[in-house]
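quick one, 296 residues, struct below
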Amino acid sequence: VLSDCDGVLWAGGKTIEGSPEVIRQFRSLGKKVIFVTNNGMSRQDLLKRCHQLGYQGTIDEMITSSYLCALYLSERNFTKIVYVFGGEGLVNEFDRVGIQHIGVESDPMPAKWDPDIAEHVMEKMENNIGCVVVGYNYDVSYMKLLKAATYLQNPNVMIIGTTSDPMFPLYLKSRKCIMPATGSFIAAVQTASGRQPLILGKPHIFMFEAVRKAYPEIQPERTLMIGDRADTDVVFGKICGVATLMVGTGTNSIDDIRDWELSDNEAQKILIPNYFVNSLSAIFQAKDLSGVLSEP
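---
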């Protein structure tokens, strides 16, 4: 079983009712559960959260987008410096494999900006940057965007994005809050630099390749992908050749699936999962959507 985390197991840092029991039941049935998340936290932090919220697990069962970046670069014997347009999860994973990095610290715009100050900033920029990695980050600044775009004027500098998720919803008591996600930041860097990034997280195949490296015995035809977001989780499952289950506790809903089922747009057809449940706790009442969409 491959499972997303945010919107499936927890929301806003709080456990979604009944989800830990389902994960424990999977394991009691002899199923291997692997957490595959576009969240930019480190594997160690994900493991800690899983234990705090009652999901348990081992470090090998934690696959995060930050881990993918470190894995990708280390497999290619990367020896230069990474400019991190992202958060601490990336830093922790790069430290784990000995990859040098700069950029994660706060970098506000100078109070005054003129050609002399610009020249001073350029003189202090690192000359040995080999990759710009864009990830989720609360501390976004114009200066960081400027440096990322400037480093990328060198065609030999790679650009990697952790994920392409544009946003995620936060359901508050007063209203739904839209949180800009990594895809928003990637779009800014891509527009400013004119460079096309390599995206490693879902729905792209590299995440499944990372799972296969840890568990070479995995059989796609006997694997289920559980997620709440169609354009990442469901599409990821279909690209990897596994069955897909969507839960209604996150981004997409049964109403979205109905709309896609009726659409003539083939790009929307791929968003339709094999199964749907309102929440993970109802998984054994999952509805088969392989034919005509069932009533909820």
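Residues 182-193 form the longest helix (12 residues).
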